[in-house]
UniProtKB/TrEMBL annotation:
Species, as recorded: Glycomyces paridis
Protein name: HlyC/CorC family transporter
Membrane topology: Multi-pass membrane protein
Residue intervals of the CBS domain: 206-266, 269-326
GO CC terms: plasma membrane
């Protein structure tokens, strides 16, 4: 009867080891946030489960210890029974190894772990009480073993537990969730963008100084209102001698609150501006701007010069993509208005424009039509600004109140008789004088 008793004990130990593996897998899959919801719903065992998730490393280590102890004991018992039956130590070792490999794989490895992942919350709620008791009973022993592991393991040892999750593993989990349809592609991109914030610096998201709309410190309030309305910006930097001398920021809401007839210089109504280095990580920058409750900051380079401007919207767009409003309709790259005039997007390449009208455009260090127009004007183009070059007249178009940039440029081929006049250096250019 002794062999049968020992075999029954081995089966019982294997079952306990399988149960420990199942609970281990279930607890790893449990979400603390979801468990907190179950506590609010007053589900039985939810409070104990929430306490376990709050100290998950200790409880998982205990379950691993229990599983390994039971599995080792079962293997030893099977080896003893095999030796007692065949009286050959090598044969007993071979038989016990073969049998327990199959049993461990099916009854401790694959089966229980799959059940644990598939039924994480029912299992977690059911075993929360016994696991908490296990933590009380075996806690000191687990601490001793972890201390031993930390002493012999390089680096951090077991301090973070066997389930420590790195950023790469989280990304892989999100990719797997997208493949399974649990997470949308847009949600996956958003999560990836959050991780990328720490690797992105201010200079990568800022509006460069060449694209800044600004006001001189002696500009009058009425002029500032017009610039704000035409550019679509409600916060405009105020500069002194040049762009490297940013004095402050004028808010459109401060301008409209002025008394009727008041028209002071913007230097009297501007607010202080915050300066940030162009190498500042974007996640730190966002946190600082939220703390200081500011929406715009001047970005300075290593020499103290103005590199550009950054807003909270610029940072948020790194996470959620471009933030569009109700006017942001998708525009065709080219729309012919007649045989001599076309409306093109501001992002159309200079090369495409040259091929479109079969003209040789000036070789400037720009890539887009908007950049070409800005280079000819010597400033950021606003709606209505116009320049003539290479027999073409370029007119910036945009809706009053638009933000950030012009959307389209109206390009017209000038009459043959006007080609000579049109190609002179700065003929017929219109700018905003502020």
């Amino acid at each position: 009867m002794l062999p049968y008793t020992l075999l029954a004990a081995a089966v019982a130990l294997t079952a306990v080891a399988g149960a420990a593996a199942m609970v281990d897998s279930a607890l790893i899959a449990v979400s603390p946030a979801r468990t907190a919801e179950l506590v609010e719903q007053r589900r039985r065992g939810a409070e104990s489960l929430l306490k376990i998730t709050a100290d998950l490393p200790r409880h998982l280590n205990l379950l691993i210890l229990l599983r390994l102890a039971c599995e080792a004991a079962a293997i030893a018992i099977v080896a003893v029974v095999a030796f007692d039956s065949w009286h050959d130590s090598w044969l007993a070792v071979g038989i016990s190894a073969a049998v327990m490999t199959v049993v461990s794989f099916v009854a401790i490895g694959v089966g229980p772990r799959t059940l644990g992942r598939q039924h994480a919350y029912p299992i977690g709620l059911a075993v929360a009480g016994p696991v908490a008791l296990l933590g009380t009973a075996l806690g000191p022993l687990a601490k001793v073993l972890i201390l031993l592991g930390n002493a012999v393991t390089p680096g951090r040892g077991f301090r973070e537990g066997p389930f420590a999750t790195s950023e790469i593993e989280i990304r892989e989990m999100v990719d797997a969730a997208e493949a399974q349809g649990t997470v949308d592609h847009e949600e996956r991109d958003m999560i990836a963008s959050v991780f990328a914030l720490g690797d992105t610096v201010a200079r990568e998201v800022m509006v460069p100084r060449t694209a800044m709309v600004w006001l001189p410190v002696d500009a009058l309030a009425d002029e500032a209102k017009q610039v704000a309305l035409r550019s679509g910006f409600s916060r405009i930097p105020v500069v002194g001698e040049d762009l490297d001398d940013v004095r402050g920021v004028v808010y459109l809401k401060d301008l409209v609150r002025l008394e009727d007839g008041a028209n002071p210089p913007v230097g009297e109504v501007m607010r202080a501006v915050s300066f940030v280095p162009d190498s500042k990580p974007v996640d730190d920058l966002l946190r600082d701007m939220q703390t200081a409750r500011i929406h715009i900051a001047a970005v300075v380079d290593e020499y103290g010069g103005t590199a550009g401007l950054v807003t909270i919207e610029d940072i948020l767009e790194e996470i959620v993509g471009e933030i569009a409003d109700e006017y942001d309709d998708e525009l065709p790259p080219v729309a012919w208005l007649d045989d001599r005039t076309a409306r093109v997007t501001a992002r159309l390449s200079v090369q495409d424009l040259s091929e479109l009208f079969d003209v040789d455009l000036p070789e400037l260090d720009v890539d887009t039509v908007a950049g070409l127009l800005a280079a000819e004007l010597g400033k950021v183009p606003l709606a209505g600004d116009r320049a003539r070059l290479a027999g073409l007249e370029l007119t910036a178009e945009g809706t009053v109140g638009r933000r950030n940039r012009i959307e389209t440029v109206r390009v017209a081929r000038l009459p043959e008789a006007g080609d000579t006049e049109a190609n002179t250096a700065n003929d017929e250019r219109h700018t905003i004088n502020v």
